Amino acid sequence: GSSDAGAVLRACERLNPRPLGPGRLGAIAATLGSDVPFLAGESAAAIGTGRGEQLAPSPPLPVRDVALVFPPFGIPTKDAYRWLAESRGQYPPLEPVMDPDQAASWDAIATWAENDFEAVVVERHPEIGNILDALRSAGALLAMLSGSGSTVFGVFAADDSGAAPELLAAQGTMPAGARIVWTRTARRVVPVVASG
């Protein structure tokens, strides 16, 4: 949903005879969701603060193969937030927890990246933990729950050409019906071009 909203905003901005500009477009995007400003923007990488809507573009990292694993079930975002709140007792204030150097390489990101939803989601859906284990066993440099789930992703090292077959072989540890889609990270955002 967020990526679709970002794409529509980018298209509307391109077609608008009086474009709003990044600031106003970002403000509109933020009303739709915390990740929509990034997805409506022109940067392939950025560090987000606030709720994630305040963006500081950063240099894109080298391209890596990514496995997206889609379990045969979804996780309602409302439930995931409730589980997280119950585990904490309350929502703590959001504090910046990183500096730009921590996002300077895939290895650096792999050392600090975490998703607060992961523990509470895995507790209720152990299949997610099985998927994470399978990705790590297949050589993922970084494997995490995406957002509040249920999608899980694994980022693979540049020299890890054997990851796909290993992961597919490990699929027996994944929930029946889980789908794997292979993609790559992006180095740039493709511009919206109006035809005609």
Provide the low-confidence segments as ranges.
none
In terms of quaternary structure, what is this? Answer: single chain
Order of helices and strands: HHHEEEHHHHEEHE
Beta-strand residue fraction:
15-25%
Number of strands: 6
The largest sheet has its strands arranged as: 4-5-3-6
Q: Please report the number of helical segments.
A: 8
End-to-end distance, in Å?
A: 28 Å
**Integer-rounded radius of gyration:** 18 Å
- Class of secondary structure makeup: alpha+beta
Note the main attributes of this structure.
four-stranded antiparallel β-sheet; single chain; 196 residues; two-stranded antiparallel ribbon
Task: Please explain how this structure is put together.
The protein is of the alpha+beta class and 196 residues long. Helices cover 38% and strands 16% of the residues. The chain is built from 8 helices and 6 strands. The protein has helices at residues 2-15, 22-32, 36-39, 77-88, 106-112, 117-124, 126-137, 163-169; strands spanning 46-49, 54-57, 65-70, 140-145, 152-156, 179-184. Strands 4-5-3-6 form a 4-stranded antiparallel beta sheet, sandwiched between helices. Helix 6 packs across helix 7.
